Amino acid sequence: MFLSTLELKNFRNHKEIKLTFEKNIILIIGDNGLGKTNLLEAIYFVSSAKSHRTNSQDEMIRWGSDYALIRANTGSRAKGIIENDVCENKYLIELQLNHSNKIKIRLNKVAVKKKSDFVSRLPSVIFSPDDLSIIKGGPSLRRAWMDSLLEKIYPDYYQLCLRYQKILNQRNGLIKSLNNGKNHTANTMLETWDENLIKYGSEIILKRIWLASAIKDDFSRYFNIFFKSADAGLEYIYSWDRINPSNNYNTVYDDADLQFTGGKILDSMQDYKNNYNANNLILPAELAAMRAIFKEKLKQNFSRELGFKNTLTGPHRDDLSILLNGKPLKSFGSQGQQRIASVCLKFCELEILKKKLGKNPVLLLDDVLSELDRERESQVLNLIGERFQTFITTSNINYLNDFDEINSKNIKKFLVNAEGVSEIDPGQVNANS
Ligand SMILES: Nc1ncnc2c1ncn2[C@@H]1O[C@H](COP(=O)(O)OP(=O)(O)OP(=O)(O)O)[C@@H](O)[C@H]1O
Ligand SMILES: [Mg+2]
Predict the structure, then answer these.
(1) Interatomic CA distance for residues 339 and 355, integer angstroms
(2) Atom of ligand 1 nearest to the CA of 38
(3) SS3 for 147-170, per residue?
(4) Per the domain annotation, does 306 fall within a domain?
(5) How far is the CA of 62 from the centre of ligand 1 (A)?
(6) Which range marks the domain in which residue 317 is found?
(7) Which pTM does this prediction carry?
């Protein structure tokens, strides 16, 4: 995707703006609280029909307005700006956000009924300081990161997760009503839920394993650019390979308390992890093997589940372990290493989307460069270089000079202030800095 124009009406604090980009690097500069992140959110919405920071569409509509409008033109640009540009289609995208989560999407003036018909055409990757929590936070954040990426690659993945979640909720309800396994009717129902839990759950697990395998090499390659001799890796961890340190069933079961036991990966699936199928065709044998393991683990865990009154086995309890020299980065990495690991995950996201969708995603960097040291900041800029159209927000005007050194011809700069958003000419910036 290459974004050439963006028009906003009543989107967050932006009453009415029209911006023309047509460069590879777009810098958005402005003091705190003036609407820089709101701009990136609008671009992300153009790409994915969702926000990276809220599930409530109403929040994005300017206070006191009935609706918000985002209009964007993609694909028009000077030839050869982006390296290895596979396919950059021209689209006019129009999104009207109404209250109560209602939305109208038009692609080249034609109404789009399903979000999934629209989403994967215009990929983007957004990176904000909060993304450090993918590394430092609990497993649910890493699962959410994997799932949102898989949704972009496979439009059906979202539905798969919804089906799994529904079965899981029903199964949890049933387990709560079981009286030490003595309720016969409930037991029979449990078998049906288990069958579906295994069916949908196995597919989710295999897709996630595929993802972890597909990005693993890129992750360690990118990490080595920043930390030369480090050995960085990723490992998908099954729920049944994590342990709860407490055996006291009366304590509240907290997902974050689970710990990775390390290395206890079943041999039969280790082959799949190592030799994943690049086209992600889940082979029947792999699916059958995963279902068999899942079934066995559900059986083994059943008495614990009765104690916890909750389903403990399945992809909703899995994790992605991010390793540095074989140890969890979350526990042993420095702040800087953790931050760089989160940057590397975003580069992996760019690479895999480009590979699988055949399109260059747009990169949205929200205030992240200022968090890095000078050397690593310029390494990130070099990596971005000519490859992806990148929107960067900052409240620090001094960063502009670094960009000028790296790629002065291909940059456009905007100033966000109380009056709105306006283009800055280079002379004005140097005089201010
Ligand atoms: N629905 C809305 N209607 C009007 N204004 C809104 C709405 N939602 C948020 N805002 C305003 O948008 C502003 C925040 O914008 P944003 O988060 O983009 O700032 P920013 O420039 O990224 O700041 P920072 O540098 O601190 O990250 C706040 O002043 C907030 O009150
Ligand atoms: Mg911001």
Answers:
(1) 25
(2) 18
(3) HHHHHHHCCCHHHHHHHHHHHHHH
(4) yes
(5) 10
(6) 133-332
(7) 0.85
